[in-house]
């Protein structure tokens, strides 16, 4: 199938397919005599796995670290991706991403707490009673 049909089947755009190919996540597809890309069901399945991993918070750079093993997840979607010592396709990458997400959650929690303080009562300028924040 041509790039537009493959992209639609995988739930993405032709531009994304070209990008995944450029970044090494998707092997270069077969070409027609006219030079157009042709994709099969295996490539569509691989793009679906890529999109699922991206939706879980991994980045394209994370996926590049184990791009040569994404096919293992296509073959067996229940395979564990990065359990420590599992030898899974994303061993280590997932742990690093979880640590980065935890750090971001901590940072956002501190920001939220700081903003919440602004909405509580604060002293009136010039002394006197406290007034609600506006």
Automatic annotation (TrEMBL):
User: Residue limits of the HTH merR-type domain?
Assistant: 1-69
Which Pfam families does this one have?
A: MerR_1 (PF13411)
Keywords attached to this Swiss-Prot or TrEMBL record, sorted alphabetically, are: DNA-binding
Q: Which domain of life is it from?
A: Bacteria
Would the keyword Mitochondrion turn up in this protein's UniProt record? no
- Family annotation (Gene3D superfamilies): 1.10.1660.10
Keyword Nucleotidyltransferase among record annotations: no
Q: What is this protein called?
A: MerR family copper efflux transcriptional regulator
User: Which source organism?
Assistant: Streptomyces rishiriensis
């Amino acid at each position: 199938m041509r790039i537009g049909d493959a992209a639609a089947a995988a739930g993405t755009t032709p531009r994304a397919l070209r990008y995944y190919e450029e970044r090494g996540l998707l092997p270069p597809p077969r070409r027609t005599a006219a030079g157009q890309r042709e994709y099969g069901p295996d490539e569509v399945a691989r793009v679906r796995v890529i999109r699922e991993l991206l939706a879980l918070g991994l980045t394209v750079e994370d996926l590049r670290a184990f791009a040569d093993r994404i096919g293992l997840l296509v073959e067996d979607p229940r395979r564990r991706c990065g359990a420590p010592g599992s030898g899974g396709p994303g061993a280590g990458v997932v742990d690093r991403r979880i640590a980065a997400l935890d750090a971001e959650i901590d940072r956002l929690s501190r920001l939220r707490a700081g903003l919440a303080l602004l909405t509580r009562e604060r002293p009136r300028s010039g002394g006197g009673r406290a007034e609600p924040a506006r």
